[in-house]
Amino acid sequence: MRRPYFYRQPDKASVLVLCLWIVMILSILGLGLTGLVFQEIKFASAYQRLILSLPVAKAALKTVFLERQNDLTPAYDTLTELSRPVKGILCGNNSYQYYFADLAASGQDEVVDESALLNINLAPAEMLEKLPGLNDELAKNIVDSGLRPFKSINEVLLVEGITAENFVLFKDMVTIYGIGKVNLNTASKPVLLALGMDEELADAILRFRKEHKIEPPKDSPVTEPEYGISNLSTLSADLAEFISLGLRQEQSLLGLFTWLDVKSEYLRLNIIPRFGGPSGVHYSITIHPATNKVLAWREH
Questions:
Q1: DSSP character for 129?
Q2: Which one of 41, 50, 266, 297 is separated from 25 by 20 to 30 angstroms, measured CA to CA?
Q3: Segment 151-154 long-range contacts (CB within 8 Å, at least 24 positions apart)
Q4: pLDDT tens, position by position, for the chain (300 residues)?
């Protein structure tokens, strides 16, 4: 049978192009659906961690308050004690890890402990002017500011003469919490210098707290000895055995005792919830264990 004259046999190249277009469209749709599914999975996972993180952090916080009340070394807090990670296990695969200080940005073995900082609401201008980024004029502006006592460290940026450039140099060395006492076990060298110590005395304090062994209590679960300063009243005598101090340095140290402590009254608590493998939201919380108060709560 003869085909009508108007009938044309399909062009093979056209059919191939059409098939390729169909395959490409289906591939695009498939990739879109796959991406959407992955986004949903990621969102569900992140949402689950976010929802679970807060209850776990609150449970850890209650445990921390209880453990601080039963602290086996209530007279002192060393750098090792505050930066030692502690793990707690909850039901299922849920757990948490906490420690009481941030690692210093310098990468050294110093930590950023809330009580290792200079209280910018209480420190006199003579101390503040020794901090990096400040001088006598700026320190006086801070002390005389109508915003003092500051409710946030960032409010210092509103003080006349304080710029973002010099603020960033000292902001991690000051706090708005506490009664003004600085923990000698965790204070950095710039803070010790700001208190009024000379270079030699500050270096001696830093070396002494690294090398002076403190035997743990008999009923302590920690078997390794700690290093630091356990008693402020015997510090001068202990230092005299460690390094030869001049009379002026001894008098300087004694004169600073009203600003010094060997315990951290206010703590920067870090809590990291975990759910099996992945970790949840990282919380940085400023607390006052003596009254079980939470003063600041930040999420990372």
A1: T
A2: 41
A3: 151/176, 152/176, 153/120
A4: 555 544 555 566 666 666 767 777 776 776 666 655 556 545 555 556 667 888 889 999 999 999 999 888 899 999 888 888 899 888 778 889 999 877 544 444 455 789 999 999 999 999 999 999 999 999 999 999 999 999 999 999 999 999 999 999 999 999 999 999 999 999 999 999 999 999 999 999 999 999 999 877 777 666 677 899 999 988 888 888 888 888 888 888 889 999 999 999 999 999 999 887 778 888 999 999 999 999 999 887
Phi and psi, residue 75, nearest 5°: -80, -20
Instruction: Tell me the sheet residues that pair with 293.
Output: 288
Residue with tokens 């776990």: 56
Residue type, 154: N
Question: Among candidates 166, 170, 174, 173, which has minimal Cα distance to 148?
Answer: 174
Q: Angle, nearest 10°, between helix axes 235-242 and 247-255?
A: 150
* 109: enclosing H helix or E strand: none
Q: Which residues pair with 227 in a beta bridge?
A: 213
Residue type present at position 226: E
